[in-house]
Structure formats: C-alpha cells, structure tokens
Amino acid sequence: MDVFDRLKAAAPDAWASYVEHDFVRRMGEGSLPEEAFRTYLVQDYLFLIQFARAYALAVYKGRSLADMRAAQAGLSAILDVEMGLHVRLCARWGLSPDDLEAATEETGTVAYTRFVLDAGAAGDLLDLHVALAPCVIGYAEIGRRLAEEIGPGLATHPYREWIGEYAGEAYQELATSARRHLGDLAARAMTESRFPDLARLFAQASRLEADFWQMALDPRGPR
Ligand SMILES: Cc1ncc(CN)c(N)n1
Question: Cross-referenced Gene3D superfamilies, in alphabetical order (predicted)?
C-alpha cells in the first residue's frame, strides 16, 4: 500500500463524500443541470489560479532541485495545459474569458484554496503535497471511473470533454507522477507519529473538494 492508499484508507468517509458526490454521479448519468456545470466551471477557473500559487509555493518550499523541478512541472501543468483546456471548455459552454475574469470567488473556493495554501505555508513540502493530493489524484480517479462506466457512449455524452480530459492519458500520467512523488517525499519525511496529522489534512482537503461540488449544486443568490 503506498502512502496515498494509506491516506485514503484512513479517511474513507471523507474520500467517498468527494469521489462519489452527487455532482459526480449526475455528471456521469448526464443528468447534471447545465447551470450547475457552468457554476462549477467559473469557480474552477478561480480555483486553478490559486492552485497554481500552491505549486509555486511548493517550488519555494522545495529543498532539493528534484523537488523544485517536480513542483515546477505541476505549476506548468496547470498554467500551460489544464488552464488552456479549461478556458476552451468554458468557451464551449458559453463562458468567455471576460466572464471568467469578472467572476468572484465563492466562499467554498476561498475555503479550499486558502486551506491548501495555509497547509503549505505553515508546514513543510510533505504537508503541502498531502493537501494537494485529493485534487490532482482524485480527479484522475473520478475521470477514469466515469469513462469506464460510460464506455462507448462517451462520444455523445454531454460532459464528454470534461470526462475525456481527466480520463485522458496526459492527466492520468500527471496523477501517477504526483502519486509517485508523494510516495518519495513520504519515504524521506514521514515518521509514523506524523501520519495521523497528515491523514487529518488529507481528510479535510477531501471534504473541501466535496463542498466544492456541492457549491455548484446550491449556488447562492446575488448579494
Ligand atoms: C476543485 C478542483 N479539484 C481538482 C482539480 C483537478 N486539478 C480541479 N480542476 N478542480
């Protein structure tokens, strides 16, 4: 069992609340309301900006060139790949770059992203990568599972681009290397007495992912 599996096994309810959330189930069934998906897309744009900052923090927190390069690869994957795909996906859903720029962060976006940034600022690189793990590795698990469940019907599925992106080879490889790097870091920096604190961090990040889905199902009115 690698450290990622150990973290999941220590937080089964939090993990299930995230990867089996109603938003995910309804996206897979194709019954997710389009408005909920648009709300999610806008908040995810703002989320990705903050997550790029978290990877920049990981570069700063790195103590070896290998750790700094791994963090730089994560930063580049967001800024140069995921963000571009995301902006194109938003355009196909009627959201222009101006719409995205004008949007403001919802409470759930602030809560999750600043929680991760704080975990990294207050802790070391392992704390930061544990807080990031549900994000990067969880989406690969969700994308792969949905693509398997939908099968050939994916070609005409309403959410095919999103599912295809996270089930696709490029994202799957990114998640595999993030998982390997987390294992390497843990082998160097994790003592058994530290594990319960890391498991708490992982569980909280997983719950905040679940809240992020929920936020799109229950958008607040104007204020
Ligand atoms: C909220 C959230 N979590 C994870 C991912 C995948 N990087 C994302 N785009 N958005």
Answer: Heme oxygenase-like
* Domains of the chain as residue ranges with CATH: 3-217 (1.20.910.10)
Distance from Cα 44 to the centre of ligand 1, integer Å: 7
- Name the token pair of 178: 């993030």
Question: Is the distance from CB of 171 to CB of 140 less than 8 angstroms?
Answer: yes
Nearest CA to ligand 1 atom 10: 44
SS3 per residue for 192-203: HHHHHHHHHHHH
Q: What is the pLDDT of residues 52-92, one digit of tens each?
A: 999 999 999 999 999 999 999 999 999 999 999 999 999 99
Please answer whether residues 167 and 143 qualify as being in contact, where contact means their C-beta atoms are separated by less than 8 angstroms.
Answer: yes
ipTM of the complex: 0.98
Catalytic residue chosen out of the listed positions 90, 106, 135, 165: 135
- Residue 101 is among the residues annotated as catalytic for this protein: no
Q: Is 135 a catalytic residue?
A: yes
Ligand 1 center from residue 174 Cα (angstroms):
13
